[in-house]
Design a protein that fits this description.
The structure holds two protein chains of two kinds.
Chain A: E1 2-6, E2 9-11, E3 33-35, H1 37-53, E4 58-64, H2 69-79, E5 83-87, H3 97-111, E6 115-119, H4 130-138, E7 142-151, E8 157-164, E9 167-174, E10 177-181, H5 193-199, E11 204-207, H6 245-259
Parallel strand pairs in A: 1-4, 1-6, 4-5, 5-11, 6-10, 7-10
Antiparallel strand pairs in A: 2-3, 7-8, 8-9
Helix pairs in contact in A: 2-5, 3-4
Chain B: H1 3-32, H2 42-54, H3 65-90, H4 96-100, H5 102-133, H6 144-172, H7 184-194, H8 200-221, H9 229-238, H10 271-277, H11 285-289, H12 291-294, H13 301-315, H14 317-320, H15 339-344, H16 350-354, H17 361-376, H18 383-393, H19 416-419, E1 424-427, H20 429-434, H21 436-451, E2 456-457, H22 468-472, H23 476-491, E3 497-500, H24 503-512, E4 522-524, H25 525-534, E5 547-550, H26 554-558, H27 564-573, E6 575-579, H28 607-616, E7 622-625, H29 628-640, E8 647-650, H30 651-660
Helix pairs in contact in B: 1-8, 1-10, 2-9, 3-5, 5-6, 6-7, 6-8, 9-10, 21-30, 25-27, 27-30, 28-29
Classes of the chains: A alpha/beta, B mainly alpha.
The complex binds flavin-adenine dinucleotide (FAD) and iron/sulfur cluster (SF4) (2 copies).
Chain lengths: 263, 661
């Protein structure tokens, strides 16, 4: 079984995000990049499926991102993925989801697959579109926001539990399928040292757009970000000051009730 | 030679041969173990044997040790006497006094005679302690252990009875070498036996053979009981760790095809670690000192060593198989040592401080952690975010690394990257940088340095976690990444020494960074600030109303011997009025070491509350600390105990107050 896991490089959630002078993106200095949290669930789910199906199953990581993403791809390989495809091209600097999906779709088609796991959204721009556009482009079903995944015995169908407003939904799907992963699906593993050592020798297939068969940069972006704006300063927060914790709590409850009117 | 002499000789040689085979096997076990260099500083090693074996310095640190002292020396005198007697059976007319001369021989006979009685006294005390009093420290979960102890005590007792019987009959037969002055006890025994009207030559033979058989049994039984320590303890003291005890072994990650890291089976230990197992006297001193054991957690260092030795005795079988030079590869986790035990350790080092035979428990526990973390990636769930935070943001908390120096905003603290060359590098550490309470300590240190006009700087956002915590949590790979990155940064700047308010950083810079090629002078802020006081660079006026007790941090006091300095500093700044019962090198852990700071304490009661209760018993309203972890642990404990009227203050905060009056 050929399992793909999509991986996006995103700024660490703890990083201090500052918008650049031109308003076209964020300042890079002081930012640490990590694997998109939801993509860690995707990689882990891929590994678990591989372990369950055994035999010739493989997990291939697919990432579109800058050169520096290699380090994160290695992390996924250290967790146990077998190899990776890294689409790395200067022309992809600030793409919109449609362009990225088009690029990923080409790479994925070339790779072949039985199932694709991805994150339910990337925690940087929170678009959550890629999986859906990909499903269209690849002409396969999609199941989003998965919290449980079970492959049927015949390996041709799968049952997915997904979180919806106020409850859970159980979906049955045929394979191949793209499943976007939600927190709670699994606990991603911490790479072992032998895993890290082996990852150094695993293959990362670097691809440019030309390699994927794009004659020129896929310019049919459906959206363009004109300007990034910092979030509006909130009206500010009130520090409740008191000597004793007990008094502070009393004051807080009073404020919540009388000023904010939320309790 | 008599028939008896021949029978004895044959038996004696047979027993000796078997004993030799056993000792050879033990040697092969050590040979099969991993290498470790303990072959330096021979002079210091011989000294260690004189002090800790001959003079029994650590054994005598506890009152019950006197009994061991007596049995130890009694055993030596009796063994020499035994050899004398045995050789006498083989070589007619043989006698010690022939070799060493009449006077020395006679003096020796007296020693033996007197020690016999003393040993019987010590045995009686030991039996009462073991079987009547049953103190906490001797408690063990292996039912075979007390049976073995009883057997050994009984055997020594019987041996001494036979010895006196033998000498008594010798006197009745009209011995020339035994007199009333050099064998008073034996003479009384002889007098007593005279009344029994027995067949003296026959009795002499019976006592002689009884004596022989007990010794034979002893030789064959020793290697399979805790009395293996008779063989193991002396070399173990000789090969003890002569450096500071706070350093862990360096792991080499160059072999990229390695499939296993850390220790998962006995064969992964070094020969010295294996020898440790054969040196345990089962005195249980480590057990009573252990904070995990004191708070009802499953860990007891004594029991860990005991079970490891038991497994060694079982698994040595593998070595017996022909052509084999390895121990049977049997996993240690979870049967021999459970994961709960492995993670309960605070690496406080109290066990190693107490151990009379210098067994090194912490390295073994960390080696087991290394296996779990590095090889198996198996550890309590709450640790994973800690590792990830260290990897991404270089601190154990989920706080962006770019805010590492935010605590210093507005204080005019220079950055190393601006100054390049300066006198003192203030190593702030993760707590001092991110923990709100510890940030106050960092600010106090900075204020004091500014008052004293010190030329200093901090690394700011270039500083990374020092690696101490990751190392003790078994994540050597992460620790080495951090250590190497820090060394690269430190090498960029010129400075004379590091000052830090964190004993964990202090310890790792002192004893671990040199393993990676960086040796810089580093002092704890207590030493540094005391120096400023002595030079009058700081002027303190004692705050008479500030009354408290000083708590020794494990990594400052026990591991690095900084005990006097914080007290001297406090005596000039406040009223250091009380001392904990457990203090100095015998201090009791706050519960935060070894990564426990970031783990949940779900088993047993809480270590910090145990310590806080001890504080409350002292009746003071402040505890003075010199470690950011201790500070947090005390504050938390005092809060949960509902004693927010008692406060924890770092010594730097106290001094700043005293200097600002
Ligand atoms: C619960 C939910 C409700 C939504 N409701 C609406 C709505 O009401 N209206 C609407 O218009 N849209 C809606 N969306 C869609 C959503 O806002 C965006 O379509 C979408 O989140 C994603 O774009 P992104 O760039 O952030 O990357 P995402 O699309 O968030 O990324 C999703 C996943 O795609 C993969 N991926 C992304 N980039 C790369 C890359 N460079 N390389 C490899 N893999 C990559 C990763 O696995 C990633 O986790 C919803 C989405 C969700 C999950
Ligand atoms: S280091 Fe401390 S906690 Fe660990 S076993 Fe020894 S005494 Fe117990
Ligand atoms: S390890 Fe040391 S302190 Fe602990 S029981 Fe054995 S000899 Fe005693």
């Amino acid at each position: 079984m050929k399992i793909l896991a999509l991986l996006k490089r995103v700024p660490d959630t703890e990083a201090k995000i500052l918008i650049n002078q031109e308003g076209t993106g964020i300042k890079d200095e002081g930012i640490k990049y990590v694997i998109n949290t939801y993509d860690e669930y995707a990689v882990e789910e891929g590994l678990r499926l591989k372990e369950k199906t055994g035999g010739t199953s493989t997990v291939t990581v697919v990432c579109a991102g800058p050169e520096e993403a290699t380090e994160l791809i290695r992390t996924a390989l250290a967790m146990g993925a077998d190899d990776a495809v890294h689409v790395c091209d200067k022309a992809l600097e600030r793409p919109d989801p449609f362009v990225i999906a088009a690029v990923l779709a080409k790479a994925i088609k070339a790779e072949g697959f039985d199932i694709i796991f991805c994150g339910k959204q990337a925690i940087d721009d929170d678009m959550g579109q890629i999986q859906s556009i990909l499903a269209e482009m690849l002409d396969i079903p999609q199941v989003n926001v998965a919290t449980a995944f079970e492959l049927a015995a015949d390996a041709k169908r799968a049952t997915v539990r997904r979180r919806v407003e106020g409850g859970d939904e159980k979906v049955e799907t045929s394979l191949p399928v793209i499943v976007s992963c939600e927190k709670g699906l699994n606990d991603p593993r911490y790479a072992s040292l032998p895993g890290i050592m082996k990852a150094k020798k695993k293959e990362i297939r670097k691809k440019t757009l030309a390699d994927l068969g794009f004659a020129q940069a896929p310019g049919d972006a459906r959206s363009t970000i004109l300007r990034w704006l910092p979030p509006q300063k909130s009206s500010g927060c009130t520090m409740v000051k008191a000597e004793e914790t007990r008094d502070a709590v009393k004051e807080l409850v009073r404020l919540l009730r009388e000023e904010a009117k939320v309790v | 030679m008599t028939i008896q002499g021949i029978v004895f000789l044959v038996l004696f040689l047979a027993v000796l041969a078997v004993f030799g085979l056993i000792v050879r096997l033990l040697y092969r076990i050590l040979r099969a173990a991993k290498p470790e260099n303990r072959f330096d500083r021979w002079g210091d090693r011989i000294k260690a044997v004189l002090v800790y074996v001959c003079a029994q310095a650590r054994v005598l640190a506890k009152p019950a040790g006197l009994g061991h002292f007596v049995i130890f020396w009694g055993f030596i005198f009796i063994t020499i006497g035994t050899l004398d007697h045995m050789l006498g059976q083989v070589i007619p007319g043989f006698g010690l006094e022939r070799i060493v001369g009449r006077r020395l021989g006679s003096a020796f006979i007296l020693l033996q005679d007197v020690f016999g009685i003393l040993v019987i006294g010590a045995l009686a005390v030991a039996a009462v302690r073991r079987f009547v009093q049953k103190p906490e420290r001797l408690k063990i979960d292996d039912p075979a252990a007390p049976r073995q102890a009883a057997l050994i005590l009984a055997l020594i007792f019987v041996l001494i009875l036979f010895m006196y019987g033998l000498k008594g009959t010798e006197i009745l037969e009209g011995s020339a070498r035994l007199t009333k002055t050099n064998a008073p006890v034996s003479f009384s025994v002889a007098e007593m036996m005279r009344g029994w009207h027995m067949n003296v030559p026959l009795a002499n033979d019976v006592f002689s053979w009884g004596h022989n058989l007990v010794i034979f049994f002893f030789l064959l039984f020793i290697p399979f009981s805790k009395h293996i320590h008779i063989l193991g303890a002396i070399p173990n003291v000789f090969f003890r760790n002569l450096g500071r005890p706070g350093s862990l072994s360096h792991m080499n990650f160059e072999d990229e095809s390695a499939e296993k890291f850390g220790v998962s089976e006995l064969g992964d230990f070094t020969w010295k670690q294996t020898m440790d197992l054969c040196a345990c006297t089962e005195c249980g001193r480590c057990q009573v000192a252990c904070p995990a054991h004191a708070t009802q957690k499953p860990l007891s260092p004594f029991r860990v060593i005991h079970r490891l030795r038991a497994q060694l005795m079982r698994d040595k079988g593998g070595l017996l198989a022909k052509g084999s030079d390895v121990l049977k590869p049997a996993p240690l986790i979870p049967e021999t040592v459970s994961e709960d035990e492995i993670w309960a350790c605070t690496t406080c080092g109290a066990c190693m401080q107490e151990c009379p035979t210098f067994i090194e428990h912490v390295q073994k526990i960390v080696d087991l952690r290394r296996f779990l973390v590095l090889t198996e990636s198996r550890f309590p769930a709450e640790i994973q975010p800690v590792f990830k935070n260290m990897e991404v943001n270089y601190n154990p908390w989920a706080i962006g690394y770019s805010s590492r120096a935010d605590w210093a905003a507005g204080l005019g603290v220079p950055l190393a990257s601006e100054k390049r060359s300066f006198d003192v590098l203030f190593w702030v550490g993760c707590s001092g940088s991110f923990d709100q309470r510890a940030q106050k300590v960092s600010r106090s240190v900075v204020r004091l340095m500014q008052m004293a006009g010190i030329d200093f700087a901090i690394l700011g956002t270039e500083e990374m976690c020092c690696g101490e915590t990751a190392r003790r949590m078994g994540n050597e790979y992460l620790a080495q990444t951090q250590i190497q990155a820090n060394i690269e940064t430190l090498k960029k700047y010129k400075f004379n020494r590091i000052v830090t308010a964190c004993p964990h950083g202090l310890n790792t810079f002192l004893v671990e960074y040199p393993q990676f090629g960086l040796s810089v002078p580093v002092v704890h802020h207590s030493e540094f600030l005391l120096g400023l006081l002595s030079k009058d660079a700081l002027k303190a006026r004692r705050i008479e109303t500030l009354r408290g007790a000083y708590h020794d941090s494990c990594y400052l006091g026990r591991y690095n011997g900084v005990i006097r300095e914080p007290r001297a500093l406090l005596s000039r700044a406040a009223r250091h009025v009380a001392e904990f019962g457990r203090r100095g090198r015998s201090s009791f852990c706050c519960g935060a070491g070894g990564g426990r700071m970031w783990m949940e304490e779900t088993l047993g009661s809480r270590i910090n509350e145990d310590r806080a209760r001890e504080l409350l018993g002292l009746g003071v309203d402040h505890v003075f600390t010199a470690c950011p972890f201790c500070l947090t642990m005390f504050e938390d404990a005092l809060k949960t105990l509902g004693r927010e009227d008692v406060h924890a203050l770092d010594i730097a905060e106290v001094l700043l107050e005293a200097c600002s009056q």
